[in-house]
Design a protein that fits this description.
Blueprint: E1 12-17, H1 22-37, E2 42-47, H2 50-57, H3 66-83, H4 98-106, H5 112-125, H6 133-142, H7 147-154, H8 157-173, E3 180-183, E4 186-189, H9 194-201, H10 209-216
Parallel strand pairs: 1-2
Antiparallel strand pairs: 1-3, 3-4
Helix pairs in contact: 1-3, 1-5, 2-8, 4-5, 4-7, 4-8, 5-6, 6-7
Length: 229
Amino acid sequence: MMRSMPPTIDTSLEFYADPISPYVYIASHRVRRLVAARPDLEIEVRPVLFAALLDHFGQRGPAEIAAKRVFTFKDVARRCHDLGVPLVGPATHPFNPLAALRAILAAPASDRLRALAAIVDAGWGLGADLGDPGAIARALTDAGLDGPALVAAGGAAEVKQALAAATREAAARGVFGVPTFGARDELLFGQDRLDDALRVLAGADPVDPAQVIEMLARPAGATRRAAAS
C-alpha cells in the first residue's frame, strides 16, 4: 500500500505594499518579526500604487470616506499599541507615494524589505513627510542604504514603467488593496493575515475550493441600486 506524500512546504511569500497605508507599516513589523523567527522564509516585496488599484476596481480609499478615515486612524492606534510599535503618522496624509515606491523598487530585491521598513518607520513611526524625496533619502540612508542614489534611480523611466507594470500585474492577479500577501496561488489581504499565508505555504489551508466555487455560483437574491447622479 502506497503512502501519501506529505504536502510540499513552500517558503516564498510575496508582500504587496504601498507606504501610504498605515496597515503596510503594521504588516512590515509583523513580517520582520516573522523573518527573525523563520529565516527560511523568502519575502518578496512588491511595490504597487494603491491609488491605481482603487481605480482599477472602482473603489474609494479609506482616506476618501470621512467616517472610515476616523476609524482607520483609531484602529491603527490600537493595532500599534498591541504590537508595541510607535505611531506618530506622516506629516501629511494622503501623500504622493510615488517617490517612495520607486525608490523601493530601485533597490536590489534582497534590500526591498529593508527599504520599505525604513520608509514606513520614518513616516508612520517618526512623523516624516513621505511625499518628500529628501525625507525618503534620509530614511533609507539611516537604514544603511544609499538613499540619494535610490531616490535618483527611482526617477528613471524604466523604474517608473516597472512600477506601473507591477501595479497592472497585481490588479490582474486580483490584488485589490494593501497589504496583500501572495502565498502559492492564494492572495491574503490584511496586516493580520500572515498566519493564513503560512498555512497556505504549508499546504494546510482549510479552504475547500469546491465549496467556494459552489457558493459563488449561487444566484443573487438582491442587487444594490446605483447611487443617483
